[in-house]
Amino acid sequence: MMSPCKCKVFVIGGFSMDVNNSIAIFENKKIRRIWHEEDWWFVVEDVVFALTDSSDPKQYISKLRQRDEVLSQVWVQIVHPLPIPTAGGNQNVNCANLEGIFRIIQSIPSPKAEPFKLWLAKVGYQRIEENYDPELAINRAMNAYLKKGYSKEWINQRLKTIEVRKELTDEWEKSGINKPSEFASLTNTLTKAWSDRTVREYKDLKNLKKENLRDNMTNIELVLNMLAEASTTEISKVENLDGLIQSEVVAEKGGSVAGVARKELEKKIGKSVISKSNYLDKPEKEKRKLLSDKAKIKYRLLKSKKKVKS
């Protein structure tokens, strides 16, 4: 049994969901989850254990994939290793989002499958509630980032980027973009245009694997990426796009607007604004304080030198 908490919990039948936590509960079994790419992702092994009571969920999954060849073929598309807190620290654990979990449980013969689908539907209902009341989503995202050690200044910037990104993807959808691979391709084009790096190259620079790139950007990187996406949105509205090819051209144009701004800024400050820094080892709030302290020390040293000269 999970220990009681003061968090807000929805209860339906035999399952509950803590909307402020990374743990969900199904029939007294905990299922770990993580907020990634603006969606909940669930630990696959926890789901399998909850449905089957298997003493070895890993072995069960292995046999499941052997039995279901179609599931095995799409596995790498729906299941991704994401950083999940464990007793030994954060470890990459196989996770799937709502759609992925629905596909997996189709292949699991369990009397608990239907109740579990209702439980997943509750998660979806939470997202629908947020569509009608965006403040719910904003508050949840704010709390999630605070728990991860981000400063309020950074969080406010990050939340704005989510809004700008949503406007862009809505515009892309109007032009007929609907496949994940197409969205990824357009994002890659846009990112390359403003940063001179593909998404993969950018992640490699920051030593990221499956982690979210934007969650590891500095304030100035977030601003430039937001400028690229906002510019692409505005150009798209004017040009009335139709299809991927036209959208790629405009993504290049929009990204270039931010690319020009980046280069101008780098000329003024004499260094690159594309940072190798990530927030995997040390939270953003700590790094921000560290930079602030260094700046204060540098200022005091300059001030003391001026006093000596005078």
List the SSEs and their pairings.
Blueprint (H helix, E strand, L loop, with lengths): L8 E4 L2 E4 L4 E4 L2 E8 L2 E5 H9 L4 H11 L1 H10 L1 E7 L2 E9 H8 L7 H20 L1 H14 L4 H23 L5 H16 L3 H7 L13 H21 L4 H26 L14 H26 L1
Antiparallel strand pairs: 1-2, 2-3, 3-4, 4-5, 5-7, 6-7
Helix pairs in contact: 1-2, 2-3, 5-6, 6-7, 7-10, 8-10, 8-11, 10-11
Question: What does this molecule look like?
Answer:
This protein has helices at 44-52, 57-67, 69-78, 98-105, 113-132, 134-147, 152-174, 180-195, 199-205, 219-239, 244-269, 284-309; strands spanning 9-12, 15-18, 23-26, 29-36, 39-43, 80-86, 89-97. By secondary structure, it is an alpha+beta fold. It folds into two domains: 9-132; 151-301, no CATH class. Strands 1-2-3-4-5-7-6 form a seven-stranded antiparallel beta sheet. Strand 6 and strand 7 form a beta hairpin. Helix 2 (57-67) packs across helix 3. The model is unreliable at 1-21 (pLDDT under 50).
What brief labels describe this structure?
310 residues; alpha+beta; 2 domains; 12 helices; disordered N terminus
Name the structural class.
Answer: alpha+beta
Strand order of the largest sheet: 1-2-3-4-5-7-6
Order of helices and strands: EEEEEHHHEEHHHHHHHHH
N-to-C terminal Cα separation, in Å? 71 Å
